[in-house]
Structure formats: C-alpha cells, structure tokens
From TrEMBL:
Catalyzes the conversion of 1-hydroxy-2-methyl-2-(E)-butenyl 4-diphosphate (HMBPP) into a mixture of isopentenyl diphosphate (IPP) and dimethylallyl diphosphate (DMAPP). Acts in the terminal step of the DOXP/MEP pathway for isoprenoid precursor biosynthesis. It comes from the Bacteria. The gene is ispH. [4Fe-4S] cluster binds at C216, C300, C398. Isopentenyl diphosphate binds at H245, H278, H328, S426, S427, N428, S470. This is 4-hydroxy-3-methylbut-2-enyl diphosphate reductase. It catalyses: isopentenyl diphosphate + 2 oxidized [2Fe-2S]-[ferredoxin] + H2O = (2E)-4-hydroxy-3-methylbut-2-enyl diphosphate + 2 reduced [2Fe-2S]-[ferredoxin] + 2 H(+); dimethylallyl diphosphate + 2 oxidized [2Fe-2S]-[ferredoxin] + H2O = (2E)-4-hydroxy-3-methylbut-2-enyl diphosphate + 2 reduced [2Fe-2S]-[ferredoxin] + 2 H(+).
Amino acid sequence: MTGLGERTDLSGDWVLFAPMRMEARALRRALPAGAPLRRTGRGLSRATRAAAGYGGTSALAVAGIAGGLDPALRPGDVVVATEVRRDGRTGDERLPCPSAPMLAATLRRQGLTVHLGPVVSSDRLVDGADRDRLAATGALAVDTESSALLAGPPDRPTACVRVIADVAPEPLFRAATLGRVATALRALTRVGPGLAEWAGATSLEQVVLAAPRSFCAGVERAITVVEQALDRHGPPVYVRKQIVHNTHVIDDLSRRGAVFVDELTEVPDGAVTVFSAHGVSAEVRRTAADRGLPVIDATCPLVTKVHNEARRYAGQGRTVLLIGHAGHEETEGTLGEVPGRVTLVQSPGEAERVEVADPDRVSYLVQTTLAVDEVSGVLDVLRRRFPALTGPSSDDICYATTNRQVALRAIAAEADLVLVLGSSNSSNSLRLVEVARRAGTPAHLVDDVGAVDLRWLAGIRTVGVTAGASAPPHLVDQTVAALVGLGARAVRERTTSTEEVHFTLPKEKRPR
C-alpha cells in the first residue's frame, strides 16, 4: 500500500484513493489482488498533494466514509456521487460523475443500500449549522478530500463512493459516532468489488448510435392521447392494458393520474377509458359500448390495418393464419376480431403442422412488432405448403420495427456489444436483441442505464446503442452519458433511414 509521500504517475491505469488508513484497510479486504489502492491522508491539502502524482492516470476513484446531510440516510448507507462539489466554489467548478447510475446498480447487487446524488468536500469536519447549509444545496454527503482527489481532465472517468457514518441531525462529536463508523467501515469493505468492476469497464473508446431509434409515430400518438385526456378530463383516466410496453412511460403516466387496468370490469361506470396502442378485440369494444363508457381508441393505425385485413379475409371465407406470439396484446386483439376464424402460427414448426379446410383459400397476417427474418422463416414454410397463399398488399410489419432492425444490423456490425433500451414485455425491443445476436454481436435488453451490468463492458471498445419503438429518447441520452463517463470519447450516429411518418389523433382527441 502506497503512502502519502510516494507519488507515481500510473498513466494508462486506474487508481482507487482511500484517504484514511482504516478506510484503506476496509477496502483492501475485498478488492481483487493487485488493485491499485492508494492511501492519501485526510483533508483537502493532503488530497491535493497526493492527486498531483496521478495527472496521467486514465481513471480515478475515491472511496471512504462521510457525513450524511440528508436526515433520511442511515449509517452504512452508500452514496454514489453524481457530481462532486467543493464547498464555497461555484457550480461551474463541479465535477460530474456520469457513470454513477451504473456503479450504483452494481453496488445494489452487492446488497448495499445505495443513494445517488451530489457529494460535497469541505476543508473541515462540518456539524450543526454548516451541515444544514450544505444539505440545503441538495448534497447528500460531505467529506474532506474527494473534490481534490478527482480534479483533473474533464473527460477522465471518475467515481466517488462514500459510506455514511454520522447522520444528521444528531451531533457529530458524541460517543455513538464510533459505533457508526464501524458500521460504515463494514459496508465499505463490500464497495471494493464494485469499484473494480467499474474500473474494468473504463476501456470504452466509442459509442455507435442506431438511427432511427426510440419512439415511433404510433407510440407518440398513444402517449399524447392519454396526456390530453388527463388535461381535458382530469384524473383519473382509465387505460385498458399498458398504453405502450415501457415501464418508464407507464410510471410517468401513473404519477399524472392514469390508471392502468387489465379488464373493463375494473373501470367505474362513466369513467373515461382509453384503449392501448396494441388494440382490442371486437368483444372488448362491444362491452365498452354496452356499458356506455366514454372511449378513446389509441390503437396504432398500423394495428388497425391488420384488424381490417382480418375481417376482410374472413369475410371472403378464407382461412386466416396470423404469424405472431401467443399472449401478446396485439395478437389477442387480432384473434378477437373474427373469433374462431384466425389461427395463430408462431414458428416454422407450427407452420408445418397447421391444418386448413381449403389449401387454395388461405391468407396470412403478421403481428406488427416481429423481426423480418423471424417472419420470413414462417412464410417460407407456408408458401411451400400453400402455393395459393395470399397476404396484405404491403408488409404488416410496421415501418418503425423494420427501420429499427435495419439500423440495429448496421451498428451491430461495428460494435463489440449492443445495448437495447426497452422493457422486457416490449416485443419490438426483444426482437432487436435477437437481431443483434443473430448477427453475432452480444446484446442485452435494459430498461434504463441502471440496468447495465458493468461486467458486460469489461474489455469492450465499441458499444452500440439503440432503443425499441416504445422506449423514451431520454433513456438513450442517459445511457450514452454514462458510457461517455466510462471513457468513450467518440459518439457516432449511424443513420440508415429517416422517419417522417405522423399519425393524426383519434377523432375523440382532435381539436374542436
């Protein structure tokens, strides 16, 4: 372990600073062998001198104990700094730590209670009124070293982790503080492995963004329908099923007063009711009409097109085969358009076994969110078995699904790893992961930046990023910011098409 007086420029490596001997000992217990832990001494002046020897180091982290500023914090809680401030300095001199959400998620997987927020460094221990003053700035914790230890090039990966020892509003100088320090040191021991994972991910060099990505016109239309219903009618507004398949969208609309239900039986009489973008069956529409519910239909126009085709083919006396996934809301809605007249086919194997009454009168439809190559395998079998097979005049797979898959293939060819922003129940997002993997590139579906496992990024140079059609664009922005915080100095966008599609609002929501 290197002491304060030993300064070595470790250019190209990472360094973990621990100000005090007891902090360094706690960290060392669980750090991998050979981890570059450096003890600096306590206080801003010592920290400044210690940091001077590491100007060329590629990544810096600091960990230790700290004082809690938020009364909700408890001894042993961990604060991962989103930024590090210097008490008395201006906001322009704050040091951002954009990879903090990924590090916080890693530490939570260690079973620690983790908070994200600013950490402030003071030139002395603070208590009483000084602690109240710093708390009023929004900072969660205060220490006496981090701002000096992490100062340097703005594009260098930095991390600050502080475990709470003393907590507000109780006085700092009291006998019970010693026991709380012991609690904090036990938690600090468990921080080490997470910081090592963070350091392993700082090999990143560039991010390649797929374009188009994120919201499509149908998703934007559906969200707007719910937002305008809330503005016009006031909460609550009831939505049958999830308006789109994304947890962040659902959580945001729920906070604003939308109530998501599985069935119409959960909707009070007379309540404004929205049908989701995935569509509903004819039976659901009849039930809503029988109850006199004021309905706003946010079904994506492309899904409505499939429903119309199902009715048209069935009306011609044809057997209708729907290529799709069982249990998906869109599929259930299409099957319910003409009950008993549409048969679901999920795979080439099912296509080999499906039976029809008249092989010369067979038509097919497609769930809009499937992967193009996934559908082609099923269609190859159906066309071989039923040479007279007919289908829609244009592909049912929606333009947004197709465009995002084409863009994904383009970045997958350049990337060592692909991250797809989207929720686990989003069919189009899941298909993007499958497309990347079929192209030979490892890929992961993540709800947001906090779901990115740092271990995936170890040794990775280029990361591709995209998002499903139901994922908000800001999730991509947050993820890219965190990847840049891990060292990716180049961010490129690979555009394969430009989307200019716009859907008008349902007649119930058009301006009067």
